[in-house]
Design goal:
Number of strands: 15
Shape: globular
Oligomer: single chain
Strand order of the largest sheet: 4-11-10-9-8-5-6-7
Radius of gyration: 23 Å
Helix content: 25-40%
Order of helices and strands: HHHEEEHHEHEHEEHEHEEHEHHHEHEEEH
Largest sheet: 8 strands, mixed
Strand content: 5-15%
Distance between the termini: 43 Å
Length: 446
Amino acid sequence: MSARYQVTGATAVEISASIESGIRSAALAPGAALPAVRALAAQLTVSPATVARAYQELRQRGLVVTAGRHGTRVRPRPPVAARRSALRPPPAPGLRDLSLGEPDPRLLPPLGAHLAGLAADAGPPVGYSAAGVLPELAEAARERLAADGVPAAELTLTGGALDGIERLLGAHLRPGDAVAVEDPGWANLLDLVAALGLRPIGVPVDDDGPLVEGVRAALAAGARALIVTSRAQNPTGAAVSAGRAEELRTLLAGRSDLLLIEDDHAAELARVPLHPLAGATPTWAFVRSVSKPFGPDLRLAVLVGDETTVARVAGRARVGAGWVSTVLQRLVLSLWRDPAVAGLVDRAAASYERRRGALVDALAGHGLAAHGRSGINVWLPVADETSALTALRDAGWAVAPGALYRIAGPPGLRITVSSLDDGEVAPLAAAAARAVRPAVSPGFTA
């Protein structure tokens, strides 16, 4: 914990409010350690039970995480707005940053011509009563999903994949319910689960998706929902194979007590076929975002599922945000209809596949077994994340620590390949090999 910030308070409410204030002001940075319960209790002259209640309240709100002997720390992305300057530290000079997990801006379709086309054919303003899902967008979305074998009779829109998943969990679950999530898995999703007061159960993942035994164990432990990434899993690049999909469908068949959520965020960028689980359970949803192929600023995702689930999500949106902007819907439809844009997306997908494959092969040449079947990331298992991360930084490379994505899984590093140039592959692989297997010092000699 920062030496300049002192927690105050005489009650659990006051103590938790003081810590939240520290997080909001950036005096307590993401990942900062909080004092041990007894130490803070002695400092504030309160009972340990009072501090424990304060920490429990912060955990339930997703602001802090407790990891056994490692104590209690501020979450990497706590759900409270902090000073903008503290949200992301500036990159160190000279570092090649491969930690962001974002598509390459150079490969995103340009929006100017499509925006100009919308401006030229704007039509009358849309009022509250006429807003909603545009029929022509819904028809186009159903055609695209049907081509991948996803039933889409019931459809609505959300403000991106994570927004859709949040609405789904809120529609079916309550704080304290257990959710089966991939481990390692999407860091933003893990933070969302914590912020909603849900209990994550980690499911191990291999290149073909969630392990069947892991899903079975999560169901036995009381999971009320299962979230599966169809392709381009973040951070490992896993993609659900045909065989794994069949095994999971058999396991999940008839589970009326389980909400099944599939996230196909990569969509058109994925170069592997989709093997959907849609409909394996009576309660299900499939979410496909447009952000990865067409641009992160396009906050729109198509959500399909069973009638009750889609009705709940659409109904909750109606009394809240209302609808996804029809201007944004028209822009996305224009992008979908443009063959030139489809060509650009296909070119981007091929580029990502080439870079990802080149890095996995280069690492294999150094004896390192990395993972990256699809998507824009490569997962490199390591024995010690801190030492490997530090060694790579010293060599000029910034990658993401695996701790952001893990619950109980083994350590690793996530390397984003979306902007990795061909000439950088070999030096990065060599630097990673040195970082993972540093030279052993000969020690003192006589």
